Amino acid sequence: MKKKQIAILGSTGSIGTQALEVIAEHPDLYEVYALTANNRVELLIKQALKFQPEVVVIANESKYTQLKEALENQPIKVYAGAEALAQVVEAQPIDIVLTAMVGYAGLKPTISAIRARKTIALANKETLVVAGKLINELAQQYKTPILPVDSEHSAVFQCLAGEIGNPIEKVILTASGGPFRTCTLEQLAYVTKTEALKHPNWEMGAKITIDSASMMNKGFEVIEAKWLFGVQPQQIEVVVHPQSVIHSMVQFEDGAIKAQLGMPDMRLPIQYAFSYPDRIQSSFERLDFTKCTDLTFEQPDTKRFRNLALAYEALHQAGNMPCIVNAANEVVVAAFLHDEVGFLEMSDIIEKTMNKVAYIEHPTYDDYVATDAEARRVAQLLI
Ligand code: NAD
Ligand code: MG
After folding, report:
1. What does the pLDDT average to over 361-366?
2. What ligand 1 atom has the least distance to the C-alpha of 217?
3. Whole-Å CA distances, 55 to 75, 78, 79, 117, 169
4. Strand partners, 259
5. Which of 152, 100, 88 is nearest to 124 (CA)?
6. Each residue of 293-314: b (16+ CB within 10 Å) or e?
7. To the nearest 10°, the Cα dihedral for 43, 44, 45, 48?
8. What is the pLDDT of residue 188?
9. CA of 85 relative to ligand 2 center, distance in Å
10. Phi and psi (nearest 5°) for 264?
């Protein structure tokens, strides 16, 4: 059987490196065709030497020379810049593009990959938050499958296997609640980035870890679920489940609920997106029910975690509103990581930005680009 050729956008990140572990475990099934990163050139070089891709791209052009020189004696093409990144996914041999880069920057290469009819293994949820409608239309037009990598959406996707034609009544996304689940509003005002960066269950990149602490991540996942599964906002429910054993659930018309369970390990959803519709062997740790004796559930509190309510609001308003929220969120998270804003101020600034940037009901791609730039400008001024 021909090995699947995989391009990884963001190979040096948390998802990217775990994807390479999956590939290394199945050299008979998968081969790396392209690796890309933003800044971490040393790690990219190490990965390129080990996995021998056809091509590597570094988004930050100032790192090009270092990359090029290190790979001089290798049969590997080396490029730099955002344009090259969007082009590399179109290469004919590529079967799957894993979008594991963080933020709005994922939108453009994802669109290129869809147009080139590559199966998308989608980790970059911001793409669907910003432009879910456009992405779905393109995916339909080019008949490109979009397979979820986000653990909650992979869980829902796994629950939907064999359910063709059976309507979904409800999608129930589980949330760990993050490190501040039990904090009061007064305490939340003073939490630090160091505390926010300590997620109880998952090891992830800095941006999504802050989003998890602020529940914006769950808000984004609600939006992501709408576009992936074609459900209405009122059909998407969030339940806090601190143990992160149930990765999410689907409720059907007869009231039956299916759930997918397992250890919190992103390699499983990554591998499932690669192997779909098959399941393949893995060495990942197995869930041991003698060790998880109390699975608990709580309602999310949108008074303390306003971002979740803001994301639902953006989803209801639709148009370019989720794009505004995403841009403002990227700005405030970066500011929080630089100690420039407090934890609760992040939601204040996002809400104000939502009210200030012009609303567009039916945005085009260019409208999204303009909205993103304008929302960033507004949010930055508010800091
Ligand atoms: P990360 O910060 O660990 O890695 C990000 C990767 O993207 C790096 O390789 C970086 O070089 C690259 N990158 C960043 N900015 C870029 C730019 N402007 N241009 C090109 N490349 C750029 O992030 P992560 O935790 O691996 O998350 C990646 C994506 O997957 C995010 O959208 C996140 O929401 C999603 N996701 C992550 C997890 C997780 O467990 N880490 C789970 C679900 C979804
Ligand atoms: Mg998730």
Report:
1. 98
2. 34
3. 9, 6, 8, 19, 44
4. 249
5. 100
6. eeeeeeebebebbbbbbbbbbb
7. 120
8. 98
9. 25
10. -70, 95
CB atoms within 10 A of CB 112: 18
> Can you read off the two tokens belonging to residue 274?
């690669």
Residues 362 and 67: their CA atoms lie apart, in Å, by: 42
Residue found under tokens 């998890």: 212
Q: Which of 8, 9, 12, 14 to mutate to test the pocket of ligand 1 (most atoms within 8 A of CB)?
A: 14
Q: Among candidates 89, 96, 93, which has minimal Cα distance to 115? A: 89
For a mutational test of ligand 1's pocket, the pick from 61, 87, 208, i.e. the residue with the most ligand atoms closer than 8 A to its C-beta, is 208
Burial class (CB in 10 A: 0-12, 13-18, 19+), 184: exposed
Q: State pLDDT tens for residues 190-248.
A: 999 999 999 888 889 999 999 999 999 999 999 999 999 999 999 999 999 999 999 99
Instruction: Report whether residue 267 contacts ligand 1, using a CB cutoff of 6 Å.
Output: no
pLDDT at position 31 is 98
Concatenated DSSP letters of 216-255:
HHHHHHHHHHHHHHT--GGGEEEEE-TT--EEEEEEETTS
Closest to 179 (Cα-Cα) out of 164, 191, 167, 162: 191
